[in-house]
Amino acid sequence: MPLEALEISEAVRKGYAVLSALDIPIIVIDGETTVIFANPAAVSQFGAFSERAILSGRIRSPQILDMVAQVIADGRTRTIENAERVPSERWYEVRAASVEGEGLYVLSFRDLTEARRMDRMRTDFVANASHEMRTPLASLVGFIETIQGPARNDPKAQERFLGIMLEQASRMSRLIDDLLSLSRLEMRAHVAPTGEVDVSAICRHVIDALRPMADELGVEISLQTPEAPTTVTGDRDELIQVMENLIENACKYGQSGKRVDVEVKREEGGTIIASVRDYGPGIERQHVPRLTERFYRVDVDSSRAKKGTGLGLAIVKHILTRHRARLVVTSEPGQGSTFGVRFPAPNLG
Ligand code: ADP
């Protein structure tokens, strides 16, 4: 075998070895669309290609096959976006390029699914947030018009409407505060907190602050903490916000149970758990996994009546993720709910 040919085949072998190490699917075909090489990422995505298989045996999308035919015809690189619905919805950017002087063509598939999902989430979020703002705003405009028109000379009605307007404006303001909290947390999502805080002290502080609200609702809050310190690495203000949201929810939604038990425990191994137990109506099983989604509420009217924004548990989840802590929710309809925060064991290394 001539040395030159050997060198070429060695180069090709190396080229395929490099392509095999890539995590994006790559398929190499010849001018008849016979599959010459498929890297492991392509095989795991599309299945194995038998020897001398043609491309259309595995890739069925007419758009991709048309594009490949055009690239084979004129040698010009092309890119298209392609969506697959089965087995699950996935988006790809598919690129076909000719390998100069080799009579070969390379197909690469860039997975856009995650980016698309994020885009959709962002659009849904903006739509939800706008919708939440529109309702109090429409009510404010309505009452202003009434005060300017039919209720112009009715001070009693005016006073009542002004009270409602104040409530609606406060609701918008709470919503904006929560939205800002969320966006600040998103910006810091990848920065781990560095402070040292005592979870028991935080719970004590929050309970003291919430006592007037609990008294008004007729709810008694108890606190149980171990003797030893319950220190974790964390951001004090953020952890206060977590416990505040959980204890406030327990008082509001579990009001009928008249009691909320807060307990801080240290497990063997150093894991610290802070749990908030209420004796209210509890939460049906199907809602539990969705509670931390933005604007998800079991009952929208009840949440609004209790001055909720539907963002409290989303904020809790964001803060806990940053702290590498987990929220564990257990609930028994009719018996009440427990929202537990599990901090990771300290790294003793
Ligand atoms: P909200 O501002 O509506 O309180 P959250 O994100 O804090 O928003 O909570 C989302 C929903 O989870 C609430 O609307 C309520 O339906 C449910 N929920 C939260 N905590 C409890 C609880 N302790 N008991 C029953 N339901 C709860």
Secondary structure: elements and pairs:
Blueprint: H1 3-21, E1 26-30, E2 35-38, H2 40-46, H3 62-74, E3 78-84, E4 90-99, E5 104-111, H4 113-148, H5 155-187, E6 196-198, H6 199-217, E7 220-224, E8 231-233, H7 236-253, E9 259-266, E10 272-278, H8 300-305, H9 312-322, E11 326-332, E12 336-343
Parallel strand pairs: 7-9
Antiparallel strand pairs: 1-2, 1-5, 3-4, 4-5, 6-8, 9-10, 10-12, 11-12
The site of adenosine-5'-diphosphate (ADP) has 21 residues, from helix 7 and helix 9.
Structural summary, described in words:
- The protein is α+β, with helices and mostly antiparallel strands and 349 residues long.
- Helix content is 46%, strand content 21%.
- It contains nine helices and twelve strands.
- The strands form three sheets. It has a five-stranded antiparallel β-sheet with strand order 2-1-5-4-3, sandwiched between helices.
- Adenosine-5'-diphosphate binds next to helix 7 and helix 9.
In short:
With 349 residues, this protein is of the alpha+beta class. It has nine helices and twelve strands. Bound molecules: adenosine-5'-diphosphate.
Q: What class, by secondary structure content? A: alpha+beta
Query: Total helix count?
Result: 9
Q: Can you count the beta strands?
A: 12
What's the overall geometry? elongated
Mean pLDDT, all residues:
91
Main sheet: strand order: 2-1-5-4-3
Helix content: 40-55%
Low-confidence stretches: 1-6
The biggest beta sheet is recorded as:
5 strands, antiparallel
Strand content: 15-25%
- Which cofactor or ligand species appear? adenosine-5'-diphosphate
SSE sequence, one letter per element: HEEHHEEEHHEHEEHEEHHEE
